[in-house]
Write a structure and sequence with these properties.
Shape: rod-shaped
Distance between the termini: 52 Å
Bound molecules: adenosine-5'-triphosphate, magnesium ion
Number of domains: 3
Strand order of the largest sheet: 2-1-3-4
Mean pLDDT: 90
Low-confidence stretches: none
Radius of gyration: 34 Å
Helix content: 25-40%
Structural class: alpha+beta
């Protein structure tokens, strides 16, 4: 589009300069009036060409947008193969935790045991452990190998490293924005 627009401007300037010399010097039969009319026609010719290129630009941008929209629509739903859930709980006088639908501000990991059908509640503390975690954005290329780290509740940790070292990747894993290839990420000892 800019190339097209500038070609139009260049042709306008060339015609004006090359036409002005004979018109002002009474060379040939070119008058100033003819030159001005010609320059107007020149502009009228290049304008629609520029408009078409602008429209083409919009069509190409729309196609690129549509591609991303369809890519999003084609996304497979995430697999939730976990069975441990975060639930609101109340603490009884004897210290046991009972699940409640009310917002108590107290959270616990609800862990149903498939073997005997019992359910245990583990109070949410905010303890995070990575055990030999491997992560790759695709299966062919693992970007982080055997990551071991832990964070105790309230602990402040700084991730330092060169660009591409994996700082953002690790932070995103804590929120489970991606699935890991191998290893375990535990919250208060519970697997995701
Ligand atoms: N969405 C993605 N798809 C594929 N590979 C990715 C993606 N995001 C990051 N990577 C790759 O994972 C590795 C770690 O990248 P990450 O963004 O975690 O690094 P970083 O330490 O946060 O870098 P920076 O300091 O630039 O923010 C890099 O090799 C990067 O190319
Ligand atoms: Mg980053």
């Amino acid at each position: 589009m800019p190339v097209n627009g500038n070609l139009g401007n260049i042709s306008y300037v060339l015609c004006a300069v090359l036409g002005a010399v004979p018109a002002l010097n009474n060379m040939g039969r070119l008058t100033l009036g003819t030159l001005v009319s010609y320059l107007n026609l020149n502009r009228n010719f290049t304008q629609p060409v520029t408009q078409v290129s602008q429209q083409l630009n919009s069509v190409i941008m729309a196609l690129a947008g549509a591609e991303r929209i369809f890519k999003l629509l084609d996304q497979q739903p995430e697999v939730d193969n976990g069975y441990v859930e975060l639930v609101n709980v109340e603490q009884q006088p004897d210290g046991t935790l009972t699940e409640t639908p009310q917002r108590t501000g107290l959270w616990a990991w609800r862990h149903p045991h498939q073997a005997d059908g019992t359910v245990t509640y583990t109070k949410l503390e905010g303890d995070i452990t990575f055990d030999d975690v491997d992560i790759g954005y695709n299966d062919e290329k693992i970007v982080l190998h055997n990551i071991k780290l832990f964070a105790t509740p309230g602990q402040k940790i700084a991730f330092v490293g060169s660009t591409g070292a994996g700082k953002t990747t690790i932070t995103n894993l804590i929120n489970r924005f991606y699935d890991i290839q191998d290893g375990k990420i535990r919250y208060d000892g519970q697997c995701q």
